[in-house]
Automatic annotation (TrEMBL):
Residues in AB hydrolase-1 domain copies: 23-259
UniProt-recorded name of the protein: RsbQ
Family: Belongs to the AB hydrolase superfamily.
Parts of the chain that traverse the membrane: none
InterPro entries noted in UniProt: AB_hydrolase_1, AB_hydrolase_fold
């Protein structure tokens, strides 16, 4: 049976530009999380948003446990979208695990991408001494996965404030918790295992697409050491330390996120180079 790729990933296209800018959400999130950032680029780009199977309004019937057992399966979805829409020179903006999914897709078909913008990325969440600090001990991650199995709502209660790190804005934490809980629990558990137990460090030197790494202060999910590690191992990458705090600057600090993305963009074909038309 032929799969409708755009329906499978609930692809949404907007904007008036010719060059594509694709926004990928992080774990437990859907394309709505980019609502405060993506529209700023619609004047100069063809903006493409999508969901992972099992998130947002996607049809769970498309879920394939074998395909999505590792992040490579999600990267294949990104390439499927690019092929279906015949996209070239895509500016890929990915948050958290979405950044790593885009990075893997760019290794698979680098000619389809002109730039990677990696927001709060991490190639590996585990501490692997003495050479790597990912932020978590393996037993901590296993405990988090076990909590998902025993008490899915309790897991969301625990993780959402740790991820958001903006206690003065509880509505953001609540939104993230709601997003986590909206996922199919079985799919969320498998995606969490593929995300938090992944080790993609060896993939970093294989990136050939110009890359911007946006690192936030106070990010317990992807700490400063992780951003520095990625910068050292992704050839030709640029690392920018944001004023934003926490792991989700596109929600907590959308204005700065828009500005940082805009400052990094290469000139758009036949037009402006950033969101404000400079």
């Amino acid at each position: 049976m032929k799969i409708d790729i755009l329906a499978r990933n609930q692809v949404y296209i907007s904007g008036r530009g010719k060059q594509a800018m694709m926004f990928a959400p992080g774990f437990g999130c859907d394309q709505n999380m980019w609502r405060c950032v993506a529209p700023a680029f619609e004047d100069t780009y063809r903006v493409i948003r999508f969901d992972y199977v099992g998130a947002g309004r996607t049809d769970r019937a498309y879920y394939d446990a074998d395909r999505y057992a590792a992040l490579d399966g999600y990267a294949l979805d990104v390439l499927d979208i690019c092929r279906t829409l015949d996209l070239q020179e895509v500016v890929f903006v990915g948050h958290s695990v979405g950044a790593m999914i885009g990075l893997l897709a760019s290794i698979g078909e680098p000619e389809r991408f002109s730039q990677l913008i990696l927001v709060s990325p991490s190639p590996c969440y585990m501490n692997l001494p003495p050479s790597y600090t990912g932020g978590f001990e393996r037993e901590d991650l296993e405990g988090l996965l076990e909590l998902m199995e025993r008490n899915f709502a309790g897991w969301a209660d625990f993780l959402a404030p740790a991820v958001m790190q903006n206690p003065d804005r509880p509505e953001l934490t609540q939104e993230l918790k709601t997003s986590f809980c909206s996922m199919d629990p079985d799919i969320a558990r498998r995606f969490a295992r593929a995300t938090f137990l992944a080790d993609n460090r060896s993939d970093l030197p294989r990136v050939t697409v110009p890359s911007l790494i946006l690192q936030c202060a106070g990010d317990v999910i992807a700490p400063l050491e992780v951003g520095s590690y990625m910068h050292r191992h992704v050839p030709g990458s640029t690392l920018v330390l944001m004023e934003a705090t926490g792991h989700c600057p596109h929600l907590s600090h959308p204005e700065e996120t828009i500005r940082r993305i805009g400052e990094s963009l290469q000139p758009v074909h036949g037009g402006a180079s950033s969101a404000d038309g400079r």
